[in-house]
Amino acid sequence: MAIETVTPSTALITSDIVLFGLIAATLGLIFWLASGPTPFWKKFFAWVPALLLCYFVPAFYNTVGLIDGENNSLYNPIASRVLLPAALVLLTLSIDLKGILRLGPKLLFVFVAGTVGIVLGAIVSFQVMEWVHPPAVAGDTWKGMAALAGSWIGGGANMVAMREVYEVDATLFGQFAVVDVAMASLLMAALLFVANRSAQLDARSGADTAAIDEMKSRIAAYEAANARIPTLNDLMIIVAVAFGFVGLAHAIANPLAAWFGQFEWAARFSLDSSFVWVVLISTLAGLILSFTRARRLEDAGAARIGTVFLYFLIACIGMQMDFMRLFDRLELIAIGAIWMLVHVLVIWGAARLVKAPMFYIGVGSMGNVGAAASAPVVAAAFHPTLAPVGVLLGTVGYATGTLIAYLVGQILRVMAGQ
After folding, report:
1. 3-state secondary structure 75-127
2. How far apart are CA 361 and CA 390, in angstroms?
3. DSSP SS3 for 13
4. CB-based contact 89:245 (threshold 8 Å)
5. How does DSSP assign 195-250, residue by residue?
6. What is the rounded CA–CA span in Å between residue 412 and residue 265?
7. For residues 393 and 375, what is the distance between their CA atoms, to the nearest angstrom?
8. Can you tell me where the transmembrane regions are (predicted)?
9. Whole-prediction pTM
């Protein structure tokens, strides 16, 4: 009988506890530098997003042999099976659907058009590249595109969820993370440029801006009345809600996956995977909580804590990546460019159809592509009191991004013939 041998790790750090400390310290250092302690770092992070460093610095550790990114228990089960669903719960419970509906039908129409543009962009870019350069979409490229759809419809948590659902290779995921940051950064730069000229552009197009003025006063009043400094009770309740529902999701997911495993068709839709059900149940739990008093936990910073979990998860994914192979497939940038162009054309056409102001285009587009992390920046560029509108639309993406990206993945899977 052959004896299987395991090659010992040659990494300098092999302890999971030491690795945990290194990742935590790295994230803390990145965000401290991003706060701009010196003029150099202010300029540096104006061009290099902190998110990208949270992914690439751990990848660098893995590349040079400081750590062994794959042979540890930090990513699985801690980050992917615990922190990811916890982040989904906290990021979706803050959704104020009633408040979003009061923003007006035009804004919602433009935002939904942006989502449709992302879905169409995935299909169009895949088909165009299949005609022009078939190797670009060969193999598992569709899986990486499904993950990117999760980011551009929802956010980082949705992208990571799709990475897990479709088992996207760490290097391919990293390549699409580059596409994500590159295209999203270009879009944000363009929208910030437009924001400074929105009054002239709205006047030229005859857009109705009355709803924006009403929004400004209402949002300012809400922020003044509800924001508070979190107490220890608040933080303990937030943690209890997050991890309590993570436990419940895992308890329900395992028997559900086993039941669907009886059917051959279920495997094609990944319904026999317990992790898929963990993601869906966690998202649904957050949505249900958003209709209860639990939504007030957002006033104490529930989404911030969820974002902390998310960034730790991103770092754990990054440490599995082979940094040297990151730019092997630059043709993926072409896929992202075509994809983004379709999104912009669709949302611009929808806005012109209903004579929506430029603010709706800006926050509707970035509410999809940048989610709650970047949409407030674009919204505030139009007016500081409008930043929460970006948060509201961005959080809707968190709720819908996983499901819609999953469907996009299924469409691309068929197009890829798999």
Report:
1. HHHHHHHHHHHHHHHHHHCCCCHHHHHCCCHHHHHHHHHHHHHHHHHHHHHHH
2. 11
3. strand
4. yes
5. HTTHHHHHHHHT---HHHHHHHHHHHHHHHHH--PPPHHHHHHHHHHHHHHHHHHH
6. 17
7. 8
8. 12-32, 44-62, 74-95, 107-129, 172-195, 235-253, 265-289, 301-320, 332-351, 358-382, 388-408
9. 0.69
With CA atoms as reference, report the closest residue to 129 among 330, 309, 299, 292.
Answer: 330
Per-residue pLDDT of the chain (418 residues; tens, 9 = 90+): 334 344 566 889 989 999 999 999 999 999 999 988 888 998 888 777 787 788 889 888 988 889 988 788 888 888 888 998 898 888 888 776 666 666 678 888 998 999 999 999 999 999 999 999 898 888 889 999 999 998 898 877 788 888 888 888 888 888 888 888 778 877 877 887 787 777 788 778 777 666 666 666 766 676 667 767 889 999 999 999 999 999 999 999 999 989 988 887 776 666 777 887 888 888 889 888 988 888 888 888 888 898 888 888 888 878 877 666 656 677 888 999 999 999 999 999 998 898 888 888 888 888 888 766 567 667 767 765 566 677 677 767 777 888 899 999 999 999 988 7
Q: Which amino acid is at 17?
A: I
d(C-alpha 168, C-alpha 7), whole Å: 24
C-alpha separations of 394 from 111, 122, 365, 411 in Å: 10, 20, 10, 24
Q: Which amino acid is at 283?
A: T
Residue that is written with structure tokens 């290779």 in the block: 169
| Distance, CA of 135 to CA of 152 (rounded, Å) | 24
231: phi then psi, degrees, rounded to nearest 5: -95, 175
- Structure tokens belonging to residue 286: 């957050």
Q: How deeply is 116 buried, as exposed, middle or buried, from its count of CB atoms within 10 A (0-12, 13-18, 19+)?
A: middle
Identity of the residue numbered 72: N
Within 10 Å of residue 189's Cβ, how many Cβ atoms?
Answer: 10
Distance in angstroms between the alpha carbons of the first and the last residue of the chain? 37
Q: Amino acid letter at 250?
A: H
Angle at 167 between CA 288 and CA 30, to 5 degrees: 75
Q: Token pair of 141, please?
A: 């490229």
CB half-sphere exposure, 350, CA atoms < 13 A = 24
